């Protein structure tokens, strides 16, 4: 049975699309047939991060409106086996997404794929609600700062009240993915710690992705960062994917690298 | 030098309200004596508010008051259909409370075992009528010799609304209202979330959001929480904001209640 996972956050710019790209690539690398759908109609980005922007012919909205078949719109990833991308439309807006239309597309995808990753737009309006409505699980991407945490809290509330599972009384499985984590800044109290965020949001931690130049570099090159095996961010995403698949993997990169006499800093575990 | 001779204070008092549905002196006295005989200690010398459902003539009203006093009840105030009776009410030294706000409860379960209730009623003075109602019912229920005598009024179950219990975190943007009763949250309440209850509010987690107890004017309502970190706390319309809440009970178990129109925060040991 296919699993629908929404990657959402409420707040913009926290790393939803980067995470969607990395996680869907990770799942495909692990041998699971995966499709990642860009729900950000009008602000299409996923194709850039996945490096397939020049191959977009038909998009999600075309499929919903039956102007193209799913087969025509799906883009097969060139690097990774088992991975497909369904891009958003750049010329339409979020109202183009209808419950019936989205459901029809998802139902068709469910026949072929094991994982359907929905990359949600920012905000809590139509687009974001449509992305999370059919979700079985949710990955809530949060940065370690107060406004992002509050928006994540808000989106968790919406998951509990406005998703199809919530309407049926079945909970959506929630995962916390903390991105742009900088242990040095946490130690100097410029950033919230993992524990702070976990305490406020009270959902299980899927992974902590360290702040890394590799992420920006990967985005600009159109290559999911998980493929950069030397980067700690790539490794952290790989760990998160393993956890998503049920493995128990210890969390890494939670502490600053201690250098010489900076060790005097308290708070080390 | 003059010492202070007195202090003015406000108080809330639990009292019996005698609803006068139909006043026909002989019949009324017979029924009332029978009722009092069912729990003499409870009724004797208890203060009484007369609630006139129908207008009475001055003579009838005088008779009614005399009758109550003869039966060892102490009428202290009158409400209801009092328009024509104002001079008589004055002459008799009673208070006209027809303009005051009331939250009456139904006091129906009567049987001899209730003598224990008198003290219960006194101890629950601050908690409004519903508490008296609860204690009398529990006394009635626990007594094994409640023979449900058909002679007096058949004991009825007190109309207690069950508390609304929420077992998951209340997220930012969510609002929960417990109409007509208490609200219990067994998890944390996020910033930007709002709890409303006609009764008390209990939070067995961190209260970071807003909590408004006694929203329909129940001044006896209280807010209890495991960790006090609230944005706003209100009881019966009186409220305090975050800055005021930040005191000795900050992030500690605490209760908040209304005392003389001021909200008091007290630690829970």
UniProtKB/TrEMBL annotation, chain A:
Query: Any idea where the CobQ/CobB/MinD/ParA nucleotide binding domain is?
Result: 5-225
What are the UniProt keywords, alphabetically? ATP-binding, Cell cycle, Cell division, Nucleotide-binding, Septation
Please indicate if the UniProt record lists Plastid as a keyword.
no
User: Quaternary state and partners of this protein?
Assistant: Interacts with MinC and FtsZ.
Q: Which InterPro entries match?
A: CobQ/CobB/MinD/ParA_Nub-bd_dom, MinD, MinD_FleN, P-loop_NTPase, ParA/MinD_ATPase
> Record's NCBIfam families?
minD_bact
Q: What's the family?
A: Belongs to the ParA family. MinD subfamily.
Described purpose of this protein according to its UniProt entry: ATPase required for the correct placement of the division site. Cell division inhibitors MinC and MinD act in concert to form an inhibitor capable of blocking formation of the polar Z ring septums. Rapidly oscillates between the poles of the cell to destabilize FtsZ filaments that have formed before they mature into polar Z rings.
Query: From which domain of life does this come?
Result: Bacteria
Q: Does the keyword Nucleotide-binding apply?
A: yes
One Pfam entry for this protein is CbiA
- The gene it comes from is minD
Give the source species: Alteromonas gracilis
UniProt-recorded name of the protein: Septum site-determining protein MinD
TrEMBL record, chain B:
Pfam families, alphabetized: MinC_C (PF03775), MinC_N (PF05209)
Tree of life domain: Bacteria
Query: Which parts of the sequence are annotated with region: Disordered?
Result: 105-154
Q: Which UniProt keywords apply?
A: Cell cycle, Cell division, Septation
Q: Where is the composition biased (Polar residues)?
A: 105-118
Q: Which family does it belong to?
A: Belongs to the MinC family.
Gene3D superfamilies tied to this protein: 2.160.20.70, 3.30.70.260
Native source species: Alteromonas gracilis
* Residue stretches making up the Septum formation inhibitor MinC N-terminal domain: 6-75
Q: What does this protein do?
A: Cell division inhibitor that blocks the formation of polar Z ring septums. Rapidly oscillates between the poles of the cell to destabilize FtsZ filaments that have formed before they mature into polar Z rings. Prevents FtsZ polymerization.
What name goes with this protein?
Probable septum site-determining protein MinC
Q: How does it assemble?
A: Interacts with MinD and FtsZ.
Q: Provide the Septum formation inhibitor MinC C-terminal domain boundaries.
A: 165-266
